[in-house]
Amino acid sequence: MDSVQIQSERRVTAPPPNRRVVKRSGEQIRLAAAPVTGLARLRQGCYRLLSQAVLWPKEERLRGFALATIEMGKMGQRGHLADYLPEWDQLLGALGSFAARQPAALEKEYTRIVAGNAGPSLLYESSHLSGGPAAQGWLLAQLLKEYAEAGVISSPHGGETEDHAAVELEFMAYLCNGEAEAWEREDVAQALRSSARQGEFLSRHLAKFLPTLAQGVEVQARGGSYLPVLRAAANFVLSDADLVSALRERFRDWSDAYESATWGQART
Amino acid sequence: MTLHSGSVAIPSRQPSGVKPATATAVLICGRLATGNAGLDISRLRDFLTSLDPHIQVSIVEDLCRTPKAIPPAVRGVRRAVFAVCSSDFAEAEARHELQRAGVEPLTAVFLNLGGLASHVPDCDAALRKAKVLLAGAVARARSAPEVGPEHRRPVLPPLGQNVSRRALFTMPPIRYQAVAACLPGECIAEQGCDLCTLACPRGALAIDGGTLRVDKDRCDGCGACASACPTGALDVAGGGPLELDAQVEALLEQASSELPNPKILFLCPEAARAAEAAGSAGLGASPDILPVEVPGAAAVPTRLLLWIVARGAEARIASCPTACRHSQTEAVQQRVDFCRKLLASIGHAPEAVGILNPGTAALDADQTGSRITPREHAKPLGSAADLRNPGIGMEGLAGAILALATGTESNPHATLEHPASPFGLVSLDRSVCTGCGSCAEACPTGAMARDAGDRVTSLSFDARSCTACGQCVAACPEAARGALRTIRATDVGRLAEGRKRVFEDSTIPCRRCGQPVMPAALLGRLNELLGGQGAELAPRIGQYCASCKALV
Question: Is the distance from CB of A101 to CB of A94 less than 8 angstroms?
Answer without folding.
Answer: no
